[in-house]
Structure formats: C-alpha cells, structure tokens
C-alpha cells in the first residue's frame, strides 16, 4: 500500500505543479499502475482498467460541451442578458441580475462556458457606464461556480458524482423522499445574492441598455432544453436484465447528450452546406478534461485495489468518530479549504470512494447512507474555488478576459467579493443540506 500511496501523491503533486500537462500526468499515473498490475504487484489488468472507466460520464461531458458550443454560437445567452438588463433600474441591480443569469445558465452549462457567454455583456455595461469591469466579472464568475453543483449536468464534479453514485438527473432535485442538492444550492444562491447586493450598494447609476443582439438560430436552445428533458425521462427507464439493452441502459445519459450534439452539428452542416460546423464543434470539446477523467478513473481503480482508499476512509472515520454531523462538517470544511487552491475535479474523483468507505464504517460498522456526505463533498468542493483567483477555472477565465481588455486584477479585488460570497453560500447551503438530510 505504501508504494501505491507514494505513487498517487507523486502524480497528484505533478498534476498541481504542471497544470497544463495534467491529463498526460494522470495518464502516466494510470500507466504506472497498469504496469505494476502486469508485474503482479497489484491485481489490476487491462480489462479491469477498461471496466473502471465510466464511458457514460465521458459521453455526457463531450455531448454537453458540443451542444453548449452551438448554444453560444446562436447568441441566445447574450440576448437573454440584454433582455434582463433592459428592465433593471440601476447598476446594483444590473450586476445582481447578471450574476443570477450566470448562475442559472451554469446549472445546465459548464462554468467556463457560462463566463464566456455572460462576461461580454458585463464588459459592455461597465464600459457604457464608465465603471471598472473587474468586480462585475468576478461576480459573474463566482456565481457560475456556485450553481454548477445544482444539477447533474452543471459541472464536471456533478457528472462525476452522478456516475459514481448511480444518481440520475432527478435525484439532484428530490432523492429518497428528501430535497436534493439543487434546493440547498439555490438557498445558498439567495444568500450570496444578498452579499452581492450589499457589496454593490453604492452603485446606483441608472442603466439604459437597448436589446441589440439577434439570435441566429433557436434550435441549439431547444436542443439544450431537450437534453435536460430527455435526461429526466431516461432516469425513469426500467433497467434491463442484461445483454445489449443493458449496455445501452448504462450509457443512456451519455448517448442522449452525444446524440443531440451530433444532430445539432449535422443540422448546422446541412444549413451551411459545409462540414465546417462539425469540425468547429469537435474543436470546441475540452479534450484535456476528457483525457484527465479517463486517466483518473484508471488511476483511482489502481489506488483502490492497493488498499489506499480503505485506509483513507479509516483515517477520516478516526478523525470524525461515529457522529455523522462531525463527518459532514469535516468533509465540507476540508473540501472548501482544499478546493481554494487545487482543482476540484481530481479532488472530487479521489474523495468519492473515500466518502463511500467512511459512510460504510459509521454506525458501529453497520454503515449509513452516503448521499448526505456526497452532497456535502460536492458543495464544499464547488464553493471552495471561490475563495481564491486560482481556485476555479471560471475565475481564471474571467481574469483572463479582464487582462485581455487591459484591466489589472489584484488578489484583494477578488477576495473582497469571493470570500463573503463563499461564506454566505457555504453556511446557508451546507446548513440547509444538513436540515434536509440530517441523521
């Protein structure tokens, strides 16, 4: 086990140190464990590694990335933002509404893509009113991060949780007779909206915005809505007993997302009488993230077979004792703190099996249901990224846009918004989760 733990720590540190090569580092780690399996050090074969990869998750992510690209190209997000801003009285409300819109979109669309959609509108409003766009874009970024945990398709970590725990789209709203994580996220969003309203309390300049953006195609919006609807419908399908139908059942969410993405791309090709839209859609996919997840599935399977996951679960159980509230608070606090500095995708991927193991050790070894702890992990990991400028990809994207537009973003500028925003969202969101699911 010591060798496996040392290898995992080494590759994890390398992923943090050379982030531009994270997927290849993770792939190297997966290869190292496969080599050790081939040498007989661990019981890990190539077939075991293939079974460990959740292809449903990878197909879901790839399909959503493509559909979101088509959605952005249609200019619908910019049109929605202009429609909303045209009906607010002042800058304070404009920033709050933009943040709300970013949060809503981010519940169904990748956080970075959301920032890319909404940020240009924030920049345009700031320029028109001769304001600094820095706090406006920071507010958009942190709101995008918050809402990513609300639904199954809102963020990579949500998709990871759904795949690991066998959760469907509906489970994020209502599960086992109790409110799902969606409602706690929304309560946290309301609390954080109050924080934004207070932070921008002095910005009372009137806003005059005309709706100028023309939506070029309504179909990508319909495809995005249809994707959500079909994911909900697919969650009610009965599970076949075996064979090809069972394989299709295990891939149903991924096939829905990828199928609608390919339909949208094919339609765009037909309209333009060219294959260029298909090529652009495939170029828009985040291959680095897809390769990272593919590699992490194998790497974590090797770590698990070496006994590291069980040892980590024992460590968490020793620290929290047999009290569910202590474990819940420990998971949320640790996730918030760690995700402020490290990427939450590999963190959540590594912690999901640990949380499952800890839950099995609770109640004197009889075990308890792990869903509350899964949701607590996801809440902390999602919100922790808002504490620092480098804590989440959406933050980095927003800061990059500002720098390209000649703006200087100081760390204190980010902390001024990110810290109170996160504290309000964590306290209300995590607190409501415990009230909903407290054992």
From TrEMBL:
It holds the Pfam family CitMHS. Keywords: Cell membrane, Membrane, Transmembrane, Transmembrane helix, Transport. It is found in: Cell membrane. InterPro entries: Arsenical_pump_ArsB, Cit_transptr-like_dom, Diverse_Ion_Transporter. Its main location: membrane. Residues 21-377 form the Citrate transporter-like domain. The chain crosses the membrane at residues 52-72, 93-126, 132-152, 181-200, 221-237, 249-270, 290-313, 325-342, 347-366, 372-402, 414-437. It is a multi-pass membrane protein. Belongs to the CitM (TC 2.A.11) transporter family. This is SLC13 family permease. It comes from Faecalibacterium longum.
């Amino acid at each position: 086990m010591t060798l496996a733990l040392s290898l995992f720590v080494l590759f994890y540190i390398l992923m943090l140190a050379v982030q531009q090569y994270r997927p290849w580092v993770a792939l190297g780690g997966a290869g190292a464990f496969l080599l050790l399996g081939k040498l007989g050090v661990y019981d890990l074969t190539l077939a075991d590694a293939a079974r460990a990869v959740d292809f449903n998750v990878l197909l879901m992510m790839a399909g959503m990335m493509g559909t979101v690209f088509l959605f952005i190209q249609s200019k619908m997000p910019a049109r929605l933002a202009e429609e909303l801003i045209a009906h607010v009285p002042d800058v304070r409300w404009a920033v709050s509404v933009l943040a709300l819109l970013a949060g809503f979109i981010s519940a169904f669309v990748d956080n970075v893509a959301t920032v890319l959609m909404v940020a240009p509108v924030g920049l345009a409003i700031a320029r028109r009113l001769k304001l600094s766009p820095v706090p406006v874009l920071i507010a958009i970024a942190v709101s995008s991060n918050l809402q990513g945990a609300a639904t199954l398709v809102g963020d990579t970590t949500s998709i990871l949780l759904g795949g690991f725990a066998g959760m469907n789209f509906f489970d994020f709203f209502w599960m086992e007779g109790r409110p799902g994580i969606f409602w706690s996220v929304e309560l946290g969003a309301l609390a954080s909206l109050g924080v934004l309203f207070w932070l921008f309390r002095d910005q009372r300049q009137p806003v005059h915005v005309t709706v100028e953006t023309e939506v070029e195609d309504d179909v990508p919006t319909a495809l995005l809505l249809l994707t959500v609807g079909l994911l909900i419908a697919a969650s009610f399908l009965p599970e076949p007993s075996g064979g090809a139908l069972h394989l299709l059942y295990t891939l149903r969410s991924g096939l829905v997302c990828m199928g609608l993405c390919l339909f949208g791309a094919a339609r765009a090709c037909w309209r333009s009488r060219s294959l260029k839209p298909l090529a652009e859609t495939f170029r828009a996919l985040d291959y680095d993230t897809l390769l990272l997840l593919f590699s992490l599935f194998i790497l974590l399977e090797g770590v698990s077979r070496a006994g590291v996951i069980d040892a980590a679960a024992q460590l968490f159980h020793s620290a929290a004792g047999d009290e569910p509230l202590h474990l819940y608070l420990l998971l949320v606090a640790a996730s918030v703190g760690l995700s402020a500095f490290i990427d939450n995708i590999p963190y959540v991927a590594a912690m999901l099996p640990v949380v499952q193991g800890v839950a099995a050790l609770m109640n004197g070894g009889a075990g308890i249901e792990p869903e509350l702890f899964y949701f607590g992990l996801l809440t902390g990991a999602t919100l922790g990224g808002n504490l620092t400028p480098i804590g989440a990809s959406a933050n980095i994207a927003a800061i990059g846009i500002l720098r390209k537009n000649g703006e200087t973003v100081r760390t204190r500028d980010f902390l001024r918004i990110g810290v109170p925003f996160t504290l309000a969202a964590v306290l209300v969101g995590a607190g409501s989760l415990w009230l909903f699911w407290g054992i």
